[in-house]
């Protein structure tokens, strides 16, 4: 694998970038959204053609004019969004494009099954080839995709944010697999926002910013060249960050949200908890622990099967999101593209969509009042004023998330539920979002934050609720919690010595019933 | 613990389709108009008498029915739906209006009755699509069939001639030299433009079409929006229906067969995405005029009917091809 160098002339998405991956290494790519990582990946995968520059694989130059070319040259990509066909079986997915046949036309199912088993075995996966792939967890589907790449003798494997929707144990399984492939001599390009993962896996790290390659660091370097996470962050943002999390811890006022014995479909609950005015409560747990489900039940997005939810002492019936919004509850959903944004609509429309009633008389919009309100929140959120007429599709992930936050701010909520507020957001926008959340809480709004990013949850919350198996298994003041103690609650490996040690007030709501 | 982090200004990078000089930006706004202008120029050269005033009036009148159908269709398609039943609604509305009038109902009431029947038929579509979450394609395919059957059975299968129809002016009359169907068309477009651009409901239509789950979570009553949109689609088909019957001075059970396809073609030509959430109603008007100009010009040139169909089909595919060319620029932008 020799050096790849290319340049994007007119658009300057990438200027004069040289980049290489060696056999048997994990080369991490970091950078804020829009820094040029994905453009580079699209060039390597044959989706874009570079204006200048050359690509070489295994020492010989190649021209990649299509993804098929790239695959033939030995480049495989595992995208953030998986490329599987949910209704088809694992074996069928593995065979797509090269189905074994008898007499040239009849599908040879037995051969297909056997080949699938062999391919899966090469990545050490024990998956039934006859299961529809859509029934597997995201992590398992990813393993199947990797198995396909390995079977195609990929020399270079690109993983784009592979752990974004994986649980801790799935991630660990993936890491083991990555190490195995590295030992087998594959060159791996690992794109991630998560510093810990990069530290755990990478041999070298390259940082991009504004379409330029800022630098490549050897993670094994010792002494003066030794790399620290701070160095990388500095390279990514181009400035010093003394502390990512901004939060003045305060006790909170009266109980704003009171949830008692709330249950929902799919074995959720019963859960009981309070959030006070001005308090930021973090809700943590593994994927599938039921955090999003609880948020949606409170908001009325899903139907409750039991329990009482009160807002400022009054019952919050929430037959649907519209009722919840009227009562003063705002929700930032888990997936902004699927559940929040209208990508073809302007920023102005996206921000105002939930509160249009405030800017209409007799159903007719009062354009100027609406515009000044939208400008107001956009200013508060530090989004450039001329962005209001842009399609929200054109914004970076961070700005898109701010648009959704802006929508919530216009609702002037008494309770704000934020489900993964910084997912897929670059580090600069992250710290801005933390500041915004803190400012919102400072005005007396109760905030419930769901986060899979433990340092984040610990950093911005006053109090943590740990969920496991649809129930709240621990409640910990953030000041007294550590990542380890929270993880133990979340995974259920709870040794008595640590629990007394950090004074967790663990109450197993589920066991009590 | 509280350290304010000075972050870089949040730069906004417009993609090609939103940048003010990109191909996508300009195609979005003037592309289809350009196609129309070119087509008119072409016809002016090729077709005798194409540019005469009387032919202009003729084109406008013949465009109006399809344009009115397509106006309501635009709202339906903006929500990501489709309405295949508008041709049959046109028939039922026309038949109802004529039957009411011949049975002694005062002219204005007969006219409104015909339109209301259209709105009702649309509302029934809306109930099935919104409340029971059935696919719009299937629901309106069904109603296309039962409404056609209904318009036959109302007349025992025979056309009913009404040469003295009280509201015949709606089809054949003029206001200051402008045919009344054209006046109605302009009113329908003005009203629906205002609804889409200037009202809360209009924003909700785009939101539901762009992201239905997102709209629900943002507090929009998605079912009500869908209901209303199909009702509007039915009402505009009702307007088209009474115009049609006034034009032919009779109740025709076969009226409007296949009109749904021309209406859909006008909407898509006008740049509205079949997937919903994106498009403009004035584009639809231009789309309808393009189809009308094309048919008219081909007639003037004495192109045989079969070849007219072939040319029309090719033009629609080409125009939509240009549209996806734009979309291609968008995804790589």
Largest sheet of chain B: 2 strands, antiparallel
- Provide mean pLDDT of chain A, rounded: 82
> What would you call the structural class of chain A?
alpha/beta
Unreliable segments of 5+ consecutive residues of chain B: 1-21
Largest beta-sheet details of chain A: 6 strands, mixed
Tally of separate domains of chain A: 3
Q: Tell me the overall shape of chain B.
A: globular
What is the CA-CA span between the terminal residues of chain A?
60 Å
Whole-number radius of gyration of chain B?
22 Å
Instruction: Name the quaternary structure.
Output: heterodimer
Query: Could you tell me the strand content of chain B as a percent range?
Result: under 5%
Radius of gyration of chain A: 25 Å
User: Into how many domains do the coordinates of chain B divide?
Assistant: 1
Spatial sequence of strands, sheet with the most strands of chain B: 1-4
Quantity of strands of chain A, as a count = 24
Reported CATH architecture of the largest domain in chain A:
3-Layer(aba) Sandwich
Characterise this structure:
The complex is a heterodimer of chains A (513) and B (333). Helices cover 35% and strands 23% of the residues of chain A. The radius of gyration of chain A is 25 Å and the shape is globular. The model of chain A is unreliable at 495-513 (pLDDT under 50). With 513 residues, chain A is an alpha/beta fold. Chain A has 3 domains: 4-237, 3-Layer(aba) Sandwich (Rossmann fold), CATH 3.40.50; 243-328 and 413-513, P-loop containing nucleotide triphosphate hydrolases (Rossmann fold, 3-Layer(aba) Sandwich), CATH 3.40.50; 337-410, no CATH class. In chain A, the strands form 6 sheets. Chain A has a 6-stranded mixed sheet with strand order 6-9-10-3-11-12, with helices on both faces. A 6-stranded mixed sheet of chain A has the order 18-21-22-15-23-24, sandwiched between helices. A 4-stranded antiparallel sheet of chain A has the order 2-1-4-5, with no helix packed on it. Chain B has one domain: ABC transporter involved in vitamin B12 uptake, BtuC (Orthogonal Bundle). Helices cover 71% and strands 2% of the residues of chain B. Chain B contains 13 helices and 4 strands. Chain B has helices spanning 23-46, 53-78, 86-102, 107-131, 136-154, 169-172, 180-198, 200-210, 212-217, 222-248, 259-269, 281-300, 305-332; strands at residues 160-161, 174-175, 178-179, 250-251. A two-stranded antiparallel sheet of chain B has the order 1-4. A two-stranded antiparallel ribbon of chain B has the order 2-3. In chain B, β2 and β3 form a beta hairpin. Chains A and B meet through α10, β20, α14 and α15 of A and α8 and α9 of B.
């Amino acid at each position: 694998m020799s050096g790849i160098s290319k340049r994007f002339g007119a658009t300057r998405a990438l200027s004069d970038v040289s980049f290489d991956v060696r056999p048997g290494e994990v080369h991490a790519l970091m950078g804020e959204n829009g820094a040029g990582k994905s453009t580079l990946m699209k060039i390597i995968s044959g989706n874009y053609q570079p204006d200048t520059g050359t690509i070489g694989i295994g020492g010989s130059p190649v021209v990649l004019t299509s993804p098929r070319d790239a695959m033939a040259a030995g480049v495989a990509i595992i995208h953030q969004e998986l490329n599987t066909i949910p209704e088809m079986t694992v074996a069928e997915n593995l065979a797509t494009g090269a189905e074994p046949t008898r007499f040239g036309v009849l599908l040879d199912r037995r051969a297909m099954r056997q080949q699938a088993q062999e391919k899966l075995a090469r990545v050490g996966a024990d998956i039934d080839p006859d299961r529809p792939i859509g029934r597997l967890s995201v992590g398992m589907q990813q393993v199947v995709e990797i198995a396909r790449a390995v079977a195609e003798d990929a020399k270079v494997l690109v993983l784009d944010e592979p752990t974004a929707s994986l649980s801790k144990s799935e991630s660990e399984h993936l890491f083991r697999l990555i190490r195995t492939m590295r030992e087998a001599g594959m060159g791996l390009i690992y794109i991630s926002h998560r510093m810990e993962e990069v530290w755990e896996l990478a041999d070298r790290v390259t940082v991009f910013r504004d379409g330029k390659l800022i630098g490549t660091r050897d993670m094994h370097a010792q002494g003066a060249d030794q790399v620290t996470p701070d160095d990388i962050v500095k390279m990514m943002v181009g400035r010093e960050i003394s502390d990512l999390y901004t939060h003045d811890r305060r006790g909170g006022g009266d109980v704003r949200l009171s949830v008692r014995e709330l249950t929902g479909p799919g074995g959720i609950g019963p859960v009981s908890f309070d959030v006070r005015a001005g308090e930021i409560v973090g809700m943590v747990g593994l994927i599938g622990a039921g955090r999003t489900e609880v948020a949606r039940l409170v908001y009325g997005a899903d139907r409750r099967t039991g329990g009482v939810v009160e807002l400022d002492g009054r019952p919050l019936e929430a037959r649907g999101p519209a009722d919840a919004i009227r009562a003063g509850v705002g929700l930032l959903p888990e997936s902004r593209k699927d559940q929040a944004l209208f990508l073809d609509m302007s920023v102005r429309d996206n921000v105002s969509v939930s509160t249009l009633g405030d800017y209409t008389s007799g159903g007719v919009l009062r354009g100027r009042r609406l515009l000044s309100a939208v400008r107001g929140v956009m200013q508060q959120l530090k989004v450039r004023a001329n962005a209001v007429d842009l399609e929200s599709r054109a914004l970076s992930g961070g700005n898109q998330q701010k648009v959704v936050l802006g929508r919530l701010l216009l609702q002037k909520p008494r309770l704000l539920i934020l489900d993964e507020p910084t997912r897929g957001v670059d580090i600069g926008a992250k710290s801005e979002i933390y500041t915004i959340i803190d400012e919102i809480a400072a005005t007396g709004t109760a905030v419930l934050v769901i986060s899979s990013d433990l340092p984040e949850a610990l950093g911005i919350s006053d109090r943590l609720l740990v969920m496991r198996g649809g129930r709240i298994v621990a409640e910990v003041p953030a000041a007294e919690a550590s990542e380890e103690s929270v993880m133990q609650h979340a995974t259920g490996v709870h040794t008595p010595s640590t629990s007394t040690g950090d004074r967790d007030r663990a109450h197993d709501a589920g066991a009590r019933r | 613990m509280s350290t304010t982090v000075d972050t870089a200004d949040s730069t906004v990078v417009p993609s090609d389709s939103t940048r003010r000089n990109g191909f996508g930006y300009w195609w979005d706004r003037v592309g289809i108009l350009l196609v129309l202008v070119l087509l008119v120029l072409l016809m002016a050269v090729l077709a005798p008498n194409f540019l005469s005033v009387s032919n202009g009036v003729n084109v406008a009148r013949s465009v109006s029915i399809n344009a009115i159908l397509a106006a309501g269709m635009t709202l339906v398609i903006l929500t990501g739906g489709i309405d295949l039943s508008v041709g049959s609604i046109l028939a039922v509305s026309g038949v109802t209006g004529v039957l009411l009038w011949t049975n002694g109902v005062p002219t204005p009431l007969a006219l409104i009755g015909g339109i209301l029947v259209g709105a009702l038929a649309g509302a029934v579509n809306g109930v099935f699509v919104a409340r029971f979450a059935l696919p719009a394609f299937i629901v309106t395919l069904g109603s296309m069939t039962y409404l056609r059957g209904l318009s036959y059975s109302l007349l025992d299968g025979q056309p009913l001639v009404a040469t003295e129809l009280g509201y015949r002016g709606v089809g054949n009359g003029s206001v200051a030299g402008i045919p009344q169907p054209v006046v109605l068309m302009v009113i329908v477009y003005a009203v629906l433009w205002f609804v889409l651009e200037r009202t809360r409901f209009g924003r909700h239509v785009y939101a539901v079409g762009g992201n239905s789950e997102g709209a629900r979570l943002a507090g929009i009553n998605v079912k009500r929006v869908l209901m209303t949109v199909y009702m509007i689609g039915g009402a505009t088909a009702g307007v088209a229906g009474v115009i049609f019957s006034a034009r032919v001075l009779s109740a025709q059970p076969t009226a409007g067969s296949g009109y749904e396809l021309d209406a859909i073609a006008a909407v898509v030509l006008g740049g509205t995405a079949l997937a919903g959430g994106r498009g403009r109603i004035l584009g639809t008007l231009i789309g309808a005029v393009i189809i009308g100009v094309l048919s008219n010009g081909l007639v003037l040139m004495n192109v045989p009917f079969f070849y007219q169909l072939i040319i029309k089909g090719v033009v629609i595919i080409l125009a939509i091809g240009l549209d996806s060319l734009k979309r291609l620029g968008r995804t790589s932008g």
